[in-house]
Structures are given as C-alpha cells and as structure tokens.
Amino acid sequence: MNYRHEFHAGNFADVLKHVFLTRVLVYLRRKDKAFRYIDTHAGAGMFDLGGPEAERSGEWRDGIGRLLDAPLDAAAAELFAPYLAALNLTPGAPLALYPGSPKIAQSLLRPQDRAALSEKLPEAALALRRLVGRDARVKVVEIDGYQGLIAFTPPVERRGVVLIDPPFERRDEFERLFDTLGEALRKWPGGTYMIWYPVKEPDLVEQFCRAIGGLGHPALRLELQVETPEQGRPLARTGLVILNPPFVLEAEAQVILPLLAQRLARGAGAQFQLEWLANESSI
Questions:
Q1: Against a cut of 0.70, is the pTM above it?
Q2: Model confidence band, residue 2 (pLDDT cutoffs 50, 70, 90)
Q3: Confidence bin at 283 (pLDDT 50/70/90)
Q4: CA distance 270 to 229
Q5: 58 φ, ψ to 5°?
Q6: Which domains does the chain have, with CATH numbers?
Q7: According to DSSP H, which parts of 161-270 are helical?
Q8: Element holding 91 (H helix, E strand)
Q9: Is the per-residue pLDDT at 200 higher than 70?
Q10: Which of 28, 149, 237, 247 is the most exposed place for a label (fewest CB within 10 A)?
C-alpha cells in the first residue's frame, strides 16, 4: 500500500488518529511534569486541501469535512475541542489547510514539554522545519522513523507518547514495526505508544494485533469502518492500537467511536470496534 498523505490528509483515518492523539496529549497535560512527544513518520506537517492531490481524491470531504458539517452535542464537543482547536479554524471560512500530527502536537505542548520528529524524506523534513519555526521545544531529525524511535527512547522526561504511523509501502511493515516496538518497550516500558494502521488485509492485521496483545503491556484496540470494504475501493477501515493508554481513554472512546461511525459513514457497513488486547488484569 502507498499512503501518500497529500492525497489522504483530513480523511476519516486522519480524524480517528488525530482525535485520539489530542486526547492522549490532554491527559499528559494534567500533570505539571514535562512530557515528550515522539513522531516516527512526521511528514511535512501541513497539507493544502485545495492542492491537486487533495482535490483529486476528495477524501477530506468525507472525513474532517463531514465532522464539521454539524455541531456536536455537549459531551462530544468537550472531547473533540482540542482537536478542532488545533485545526485553527477561521469562523465562517472553509477549511483550507489540514495539519499533520506534528503541528497538532505542537499546539498542545507547554513550555516545559518537548517533541522529537523523525522524517527521512529531505523535502518533507525541510517543509516541517519551516512549519514548526524557531520553536526550541521541537526537534526535527532527518532519519528513518524506526531508527529515530530507538534513538529517542527513553526520553529524559520519562513521560510521553510515541505516534507510529508509517505509510505501509513495504510488504514487511507490520513485522518491522513490531520488532522495533518491542525494542523501544524494553528501553522505555512506561511510555504510551500509538500505532496507526490501515485494514487492507484483515488476517494480517488480526495477527499483528494479537501479537501486540502478547507483549505484556495494556493495549487498547480502536477501529473505525466507514463502509463495507470492497476490492478496488478506497480504504474503508483503519485502526489504532494504544499501548499503556490513559485510564480515561476507554470511556472517551465509547463516546468518540460511535459518533465517528455515524458522522463519517460513506455507505452501508459503517461500524467501530473497541477492545482490550491486553489489560492490567491479564498481564
């Protein structure tokens, strides 16, 4: 699978990933103690929804576009507020740019917090450096994301979250991800790890998730399907596995996932999945 983000920015997969990223960051902000945000595949950090790639795919219209179509009820509005604030919306104006995970995370960093962003493509790394500006809290490194994950762990802050969302261009991506994650967990067992994945081959995803469940850490699986998957159709199902999740995240997901399944449905078969692959009582 080739997941070029210029085509997919702001789609349903991004909405799922970024809503839960903000929920984890908000939780980390509850304590004054500093935390570290680590992004393994940071990308350029900002995407033009009026650009040729986004216009060609139109995926953002069925993602963030639909989420913004109607107001949220009070309970959902509170949970989505940090994500929507990170979009930097102008009242009455259409959404023109969609931020990637580095920019969303940067918006939630406090003076004491830090971010380490890995991006191996030179053009994307340059664009990301320009985007984050002269922010001493944020470091952009032109490096393979998996190498960066090992290099950046454990952080001096001892608290934080890693986002791992590779483009899944390699056939062995799940295997490489799993092996690197295991090494990172040995170095930093107390960190929170968020792993994004597309569901193109359900059997392969299931095998990966069950292996994650055997790592000896609490692991929460969140999946969103916007229509019944069909061969030759655009991606219809995506997921997150979150290791060492905040204790409040399951309850928050029980509000967020049904809303997304309803609001972002493209057709019949829209649904969600919420399960513990492993929890405190099973490890």
A1: yes
A2: very low
A3: low
A4: 10
A5: 65, 15
A6: 5-218 (3.40.50.150)
A7: 173-187, 202-213, 249-263
A8: none
A9: yes
A10: 247
